[in-house]
Specification:
Peroxisomal Thiolase, Chain A, domain 1, two-stranded antiparallel sheet, 3-oxoacyl-ACP_synth-2, lipid metabolism, fatty acid metabolism, lipid biosynthesis, transferase
Length: about 425
């Protein structure tokens, strides 16, 4: 089968660094931290009292007031960024075949706050089962693309991928494959997450996964730093319009870049820990590059999973060295989680957007908060510490890995005829 080319024609962002693509990129480039004390609930009794929250989000700016009450925040975020991406694409929705326009979305947890609130209300009540009629629809993650499809009448393939922190990249790889193999022409794809709540913070605290640097939240997310002590929980969403190239050209669409490859592997090792030798992550990068038809020397930038955990960061860069060999030293590597925190199932979307913008802007966003060398990190690697670096980026690779050993990589290329 001759694979069709897939391009990106619309983008949207709702992040701890800003509620538009422009704000997100500006703060990435400046090296701004999105971490601050939690405002969504009283976190004073929790081991971790800060997070990377979305600021000043008003759902009714994007969604009818009557519909807002039917949605958990995770769906509100999803519909909001989908609206941004669709509007950015300048698409005439009346002129496209909506039966070939789908939505594939990623969310690792779904409506956690709705689940927490309903169960808490029942547990503290008199035992009478009084549940919100929208409880189940607000909780289940597949309602996010459901709401997106219903809002714009999109009747193509529609589902949610749930692969922990790799969920959004999983969704985007699926959308890429559906288009290139002829099963659809367009997708809204990406991911959203809204787990900054008591259950989210408490659950990850119980796993000892979160930083507890409560005295200095802004510097707590510090990938590759010798003093890192865990990740910082984030929230938000990112969205893309993936479109078949000839379809995009026929309507005169602006093109941000091209999707040229994707890889998928499993560690088959541990419930929460990465493989100590980066076995799955090295294979997934190799598979993504093979799928894209490129060599390691062709890659300019890798946006790493880089969560700021003691095991994960070093395992990933060692996997890069294994796959790229000497070419690893010619790469720029950075973890934008140092600024956004970890958006869990939405991470792959906002990080893919960072790759796409790096292609368009000729700038590598930094890995901030690096102050203490890690003796296990090869000092010859360019991890783009603390300040953005200018570079002509032709090809960028985005890594996302999830609990359960799920590994995904995507390859993006500057568009050329």
């Amino acid at each position: 089968m001759n694979a069709r080319r897939v391009v990106i024609t619309g983008i949207g962002a709702l992040t701890p660094l800003g509620n538009t693509v422009e704000e997100y990129w500006s703060n990435l480039e400046k090296g701004v931290s999105g971490a601050a004390p939690i405002t969504k609930f009283d976190a004073s009794k929790f081991k971790t009292q800060f997070a990377c929250e979305v600021k000043d989000f008003v759902a009714t700016d994007y969604i009818d007031r009557k519909e807002v009450r039917k949605m958990d925040l995770v769906s509100q975020y999803g519909v909001a960024v989908a609206k941004q991406a669709i509007e950015d694409s300048e698409m005439d929705l009346d002129a496209v075949n909506k039966e070939r326009f789908g939505v594939i979305w990623g969310s690792g947890i779904g409506g956690l706050k709705s689940f927490q609130d309903e169960v808490s209300s029942f547990a503290t009540g008199d035992g009478t089962p009084r549940f919100n009629p929208f409880f189940i629809p607000k909780m289940i993650p597949d309602l996010i693309p459901g709401h997106i499809s219903m809002t714009w009448g999109l009747k193509g393939p529609n589902f949610t991928t749930v692969s922990a922190c790799a969920s959004a990249t999983n969704a985007m790889v699926d959308a890429f494959n559906y288009i290139r193999f002829g099963m659809a022409d367009l997708f809204v794809t990406g991911g959203s997450e809204a787990a900054v709540c008591e259950a989210g913070i408490g659950g990850f605290n119980a796993l000892r996964a979160l930083s507890t640097r409560n005295d200095d939240a802004a510097t707590a997310s510090r990938p590759f730093d010798g003093s890192r002590d865990g990740f910082v929980l984030g929230e938000g969403a990112g969205a893309f319009i993936f479109e078949e190239l000839e379809h995009a050209k026929a309507r005169g669409a602006k093109i941000y870049g091209e999707v040229i490859g994707g890889g998928m592997t499993a560690d088959a090792y541990h419930m929460t820990a990465p493989h100590p030798e980066g076995e799955g992550s090295s294979r997934v990068m190799a598979e993504a590059m093979k799928d894209a038809g490129i060599e390691p020397k062709d890659v300019d930038y890798i946006n790493v999973h880089g969560t700021s955990t003691p095991l994960g960061d070093i395992g990933e860069v060692n996997a890069i060295k294994k796959v790229f060999g000497e070419d690893a030293y010619d790469l720029n590597i950075s973890s934008t989680k140092s600024m956004t925190g970890h958006l869990l199932g939405a991470a792959g979307a906002v990080e893919a957007l960072a790759c796409l913008l790096a292609l368009n802007k000729g700038v590598i966003p930094p890995t901030i908060n690096n102050t203490t060398p890690d003796e296990k990190l090869d000092p010859k690697l360019n991890c783009t510490f603390n300040e953005a670096q200018k570079r002509d980026v032709n090809i960028a690779l985005s890594n996302t890995f999830g609990f359960g050993g799920h590994n995904f990589s995507m390859v993006f290329k500057k568009y050329a005829e």
